[in-house]
């Protein structure tokens, strides 16, 4: 199997590619898309309170006819409506129409209120009650995980983070820390080098294969369904799955690392332009602003509504 399941530190397993429901909205579209993903072979659905389509994901999962144990469901505590973790997981279970989820994540460290140890103790409690099989975090940095581990009885099974070649160097300490503590890294937005910064030296299968080679579980998606003809979108999904067969050599991986470290083509062009034109207060201000925006996009700060 190309996307083999990965062991988690609590004795369970996670399918190493997941289908996410962010940006799909409500109604028929997410049902059709999750249904299509399951029909081509995805067995891992990644949703969140914040995506507001847990209900639709649940419908598609039930309509797939798969037994509950054949599908891995992740959802996230996003602090929706200011509700606490216990109330939120109970709402999510109702929305999804299941008695447990496989993985429950704190969506972002700023949602761990009143503090990380207290929020994590609540995660441990709902796990002990069987509402969630595995517990983890998302968008945590090394400092956040260190605070969590200092008081944890149960280690997080996973940390779901932004990971693609343009942020690889910045995320490397997190990857190393997670490996040391046997925490699985789940990578979201691996395709940013083609969706947000097209023109670089990588395509979708290569990016997914690179992410897999870095040891991460891939969380991807496909949001549009072409009405009356789903074939090309189905092909895209099959392309994601087939990327699991790509064997990158150490040289391939290194050249993607090196290209990634240079930053996206837009940022490189922008920097060259600035150097060429030089001076000018307006240009400098625009340059600083542009650099800040690119920096924020790369660090994921502009993306946390997901
Ligand atoms: N924990 C978090 O904070 C967090 C944050 C972000 C995302 N996530 C999770 O990760 C999932 C995936 O996130 P993402 O959307 O950022 O993932 P992604 O894997 O980076 O991007 C998926 C998008 O790539 C597009 N795509 C694929 N192949 C392409 C090609 N050859 N050319 C152009 N576009 C192409 C698809 O567009 P089409 O839809 O048009 O096919 C699809 O919407 C989300 O649904 C969510 O579950 C979690």
Architecture blueprint of SSEs:
Layout: E1 6-7, E2 13-14, E3 17-20, H1 28-40, E4 44-46, H2 54-63, E5 72-77, H3 85-96, E6 101-106, H4 116-128, E7 132-138, H5 142-151, E8 158-162, H6 168-180, E9 184-188, H7 192-195, H8 204-213, E10 217-220, H9 231-242, H10 250-261, H11 265-277, H12 281-299
Parallel strand pairs: 3-4, 3-10, 4-5, 5-6, 6-7, 7-8, 8-9, 9-10
Antiparallel strand pairs: 1-2
The structure holds NADP nicotinamide-adenine-dinucleotide phosphate.
Describe this structure in words.
This protein is of the alpha/beta class. The protein has 2 domains: 6-259, NADP-dependent oxidoreductase domain (TIM Barrel, Alpha-Beta Barrel); 264-306. Helices cover 46% and strands 14% of the residues. It contains 12 helices and 10 strands. The protein has helices spanning 28-40, 54-63, 85-96, 116-128, 142-151, 168-180, 192-195, 204-213, 231-242, 250-261, 265-277, 281-299; strands spanning 6-7, 13-14, 17-20, 44-46, 72-77, 101-106, 132-138, 158-162, 184-188, 217-220. An 8-stranded parallel barrel has the order 3-4-5-6-7-8-9-10, surrounded by 5 helices. A two-stranded antiparallel sheet has the order 1-2. α2 crosses α3 (85-96). The longest helix has 19 residues, at 281-299. It is globular and about 55 Å long. 40% of the residues are buried. The model is unreliable at 279-306 (pLDDT under 50). The structure holds NADP nicotinamide-adenine-dinucleotide phosphate. NADP nicotinamide-adenine-dinucleotide phosphate (NAP) binds next to α7 and β10. NADP nicotinamide-adenine-dinucleotide phosphate binds at residues 20-22, 46, 107, 138-139, 160, 188-192, 194-195, 204, 219-224, 236, 303-304, 306. It holds the Pfam family Aldo_ket_red. Belongs to the aldo/keto reductase family. GO terms for molecular function: oxidoreductase activity, acting on NAD(P)H as acceptor; oxidoreductase activity, acting on the CH-OH group of donors, NAD or NADP as acceptor.
């Amino acid at each position: 199997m190309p996307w083999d399941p990965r062991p988690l530190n609590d004795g369970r397993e996670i399918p190493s590619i997941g289908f996410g429901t962010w940006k799909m909205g409500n109604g028929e579209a997410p049902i059709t898309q999750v249904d299509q993903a399951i029909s081509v072979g995805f067995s891992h659905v990644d949703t969140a309170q914040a995506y507001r389509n847990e209900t639709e994901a649940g419908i598609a999962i039930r309509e797939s006819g798969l037994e509950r144990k054949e599908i891995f469901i992740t959802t996230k505590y996003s602090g929706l409506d200011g509700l606490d973790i216990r109330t939120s997981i109970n709402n999510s279970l109702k929305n999804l129409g299941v008695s447990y989820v496989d993985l429950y994540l704190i969506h972002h460290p700023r949602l761990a209120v009143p503090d990380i140890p207290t929020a994590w103790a609540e995660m441990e409690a709902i796990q002990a009650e069987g509402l969630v099989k595995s517990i983890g975090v998302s968008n945590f940095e090394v400092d956040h995980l260190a605070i969590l581990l200092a008081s944890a009885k149960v280690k997080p099974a996973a940390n779901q983070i932004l990971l693609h070649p343009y942020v690889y160097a910045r995320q490397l300490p997190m990857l190393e820390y997670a490996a040391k503590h046997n925490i699985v890294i789940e990578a979201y937005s691996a395709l940013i080098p083609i969706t947000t910064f097209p023109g670089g030296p990588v395509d979708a299968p290569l990016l997914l294969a690179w992410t897999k080679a870095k040891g991460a579980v891939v969380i991807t998606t496909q949001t549009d369904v072409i009405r009356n003809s789903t074939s090309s979108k189905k092909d895209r999904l099959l392309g994601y799955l087939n990327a699991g067969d790509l064997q990158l050599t150490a040289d391939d991986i290194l050249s993607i690392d090196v290209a990634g470290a240079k930053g996206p083509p837009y940022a490189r062009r922008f920097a060259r332009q600035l150097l060429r034109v030089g001076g000018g207060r307006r240009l400098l201000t625009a340059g600083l602003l542009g650099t800040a925006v690119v920096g924020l996009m790369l660090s994921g700060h502009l993306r946390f509504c997901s």
